[in-house]
Amino acid sequence: MTASSAFSYPTTRRRLLGQASALGALSLVAPAWAEELANLGLPGGPSERPLTKAFPQKGEMILQRTRAPLLESPFEVFDKGVFTPNDQLFVRWHWAVIPTEIKVDTYRIAVRGHVKNELSLSLADLMSLPRVELAAVNQCSGNSRGFFEPRVAGGEWGNGAMGNAKWLGVRLKDVLDKAGVKDGAQCVRFGGLDEPMVEGAPKFTKSIAIDHARDGEVMLAFGMNGEQLPLLNGFPIRLIVPGWYSTYWVKMLNNIEVLDGPDDQFWTAKAYMIPDTPGANMKPGEKDVKMVPINRMVPRSFVTNFRGGERLRAGAPTPLRGIAFGGDAGVKAVEVSTDGGATWTQAKLGTDEGKYSFRQWSTQIEPAAGNLTVMVRCTNMNGLTQPATPNWNPSGFMRNVIETTHLPVA
Ligand SMILES: Nc1nc2c(c(=O)[nH]1)N[C@H]1C(S)=C(S)[C@@H](COP(=O)(O)O)O[C@H]1N2
Ligand SMILES: [Mo]
Description:
Immunoglobulin-like, globular, metal-binding, mainly beta, disordered N terminus, Sulfite Oxidase, Chain A, domain 2, 6-stranded antiparallel β-sheet, molybdenum ion binding
């Protein structure tokens, strides 16, 4: 993690708040957005993946659900570079009551609970703390759920419920130190401005252990790829939990609560549970599997410059490239196999943007006529490699397998 003084993003307080005020003006379109949401049709079957440009500050996205918004990044986006453009980074909300207007001057983040001084931080207070910048992959726990066999319930994501950005913000540790965490603190719970649309439904909150919260990496971000966050990605502030699934990356953050016991609220204690097994893998119908809250991400890799079914020319030198990430550790190696996994060739790795970032990989092939099968696998710095067979669990979380792309060659 580097200090951001050299970063050319306009981060003076006035400039950021100035931009934020500009967004305040922009948010005058909010009622129109609310109406548009109501008028958009729902997608049909799981194979139907309509594109939409109807969401504010978002370019072309795959529409999974209108309310609460579920928007997937079209996969082509990942071939353009390791940083996902803000207007095409995926969007996921649990509840549909999302503010469409944020008053940046009165926005406050409460820091409360098991602390010596409860705080109410303005955006200016927050931005006066030392700044840090970090590239990190934001990946939904259910990314790629649509590929689970047998099928499971939940958002039918393809592989585009992930994205990588350079996050600019302040350390959660510094915020907690300002409040002075009392002895005996166990975890920190986070909440945002969104609310359930049905009475009695549990508000979306998540928590992490106190030591994790104070590791100096978890941050409160107000910048994303050199701009402020799009509203739907959590403007003005979101939590970044590097290397962990983004269910913990609470958006529109306005509440930080230090607890002296475990968090027993629904979203941490009951939802987002995975089998406590390697790769979160179990058999359909298996009983008495110990479940734990989802946590660290695992390595994944994808081909990005060809879609399955695209035709290649026989004997032609053909560049092959894609992205990989190590999960909670850096990318150590990316290997490619064109013989069904019998032999593997090391791919060349692109610029290292930090251990939590996407990393580009590339190689070249000269395919023979026939049906080419390209397999790609990533190994992270902890020595963890992608599995040859897909994992399975009832919630469709943490999908992982060596990805295979079939390309006819003629
Ligand atoms: N306030 C709030 N934060 C939230 C959520 C939410 O519903 N409300 N969903 C979480 C989940 S499950 C995911 S996958 C990410 C999605 O982040 P994105 O929309 O910026 O891609 O936000 C997380 N933070
Ligand atoms: Mo998620």
